[in-house]
Amino acid sequence: MRAVFGWLGRTGLLYLVLCLAFAFYILAWPRIVPQFGSDSLRQDTMSVAQIRETVLQEREQLQSELTQREADIRAMAVGAIDRRLVQARRQQEEVQREIEGSNGFLDAVRPSRILALQRAKLRDAALQAEIDALESAREAKLAGSLIARAEAEFDRYSRIPTANAVRVSHRLCDSAEKDLKEFERRSMLDQTTREIFLREREVLEATRDRRCDAAESRETRRNAGLAASQKLAKARRAYEEAREWDMAALPDTTLGMSETSLREVLVAAAWALLGILLLPYLIRTLLYYVIAPIAQRRQAIRISVPGMNSVVVKPPQEQSRASIPVRLGAGEELLVRQGFLQSSPADAKLRTRALLDWKAPLASLASGMAMLTRVRGSDTTTVISADNDPFAEITAIDLPQGAAMVLQPRTLAAVVQPQDRPLRITSHWRLFSLNAWLTQQLRFLVFHGPARLIVKGGRGVRVEPVDSGRRFGQDQLAGFSADLSYSVARNETFVPYLLGREPLLRDRIEGGEGVLVLEEAPYAGRRKGIRGGLEGLFDAFLKAFGI
Predict the structure, then answer these.
(1) Which site in 139, 334, 352, 459 is 20 to 30 Å from 122, CA atoms measured?
(2) Residue 313 and residue 397: Cα distance in Å, rounded?
């Protein structure tokens, strides 16, 4: 229940922080920054679809206003058009600067800023359409003025001489020129006589000048008239082209608009938060109902010891306690871990033993069973107790001849063994067993009798018969009788596992003859914090190697 309330409290606090942040952004921010008002407050709750719909409605309204202005623009004079062009271009520059400056913090997702940017783009497009219309109207006005001047110029040539009249005038000019040359080819006496009496030269020259001037005048008038006619036709064509303009349609500025606004971001964040909160529980549910049943059906670990007879290890008659007396028989010796020898007989022989088992030096060193105190003395009693661990309790397990037990050396406080027959320890690997990996123990150390194992544990050691099978926490296991099946089983209760109070798998010893050695509180007296975490990591590493 404490875990449930803790989870509810953490989730509620996170939700409250999100709500306060959203409220600050929506309510307090417009008051802190004066340019944001009630419109900004309303706009900041808009979705992308609402922003697009608002912009499209304003686009239709602007398009209607531009269409209505088309008639006014056509009726404007050139001077008025020029003044409006200057004003419209200045407004467009201001709008474009506003668009370029729309790159502030959260401008890409804040609905009010997205809407302001779209409106600026729409105004820019409307101003561009108006500028294009004004320039087209100005061109039409100038083309109309050209027509008036061309018509006035063309009116000066009301009758344009025909090409035939020009040709006839040039033939008459040539004929008069020919008559004058024929007169000049006469003899000087004949020319003088005709000049005196008939004044023929003067008449011929006057006729030639009159006819040639007329021919040149007709040709000049014809060329000027044709040029004025072409200019008038060109001006009329230019006017027709210039006056055929329509108000341009405004583009849809929302086509390149982002599909994400602050509202979508907050909704996505809420879904992400929900996913983060629910994903561990979904994974745990999958592990509990799918993976764990598959794991517990895998073949169990069974340590078969060759030559092991039917001798069964029995639990001690007394429960574990803070200190126990160990009485040595004839030919026995006691090997005590450092820090566990509380008192010894005065007549006992004490020596130092470097390692518990010289055949397994690394296991002896890693488990702390090194630099042991060896005690010898028949019918002597030595008291074993933990000097530095106030939570440790101790019990003794008799291991008869022919019996064997899987035990983790870290739980040993002392060993009683025959002097002429040292304790034998064998190693058994199970690298290819799934249960070995799930129990985090790849190697198992088996202790063979005869011997007495003095076992320690946090807040006590419980040695109980297996009977029909036992389930227990993975960290509680200290040892079990060899030839029993060791595996994992799914945790019995789902809700405590779902809330993180219980592990997914618990270790299991299947039914049989023998005992199970459990540590009551494995973490009693352990260090906390980083140092405790490092020690726990080191202990898990040693456990994988059966230590």
Answers:
(1) 139
(2) 8
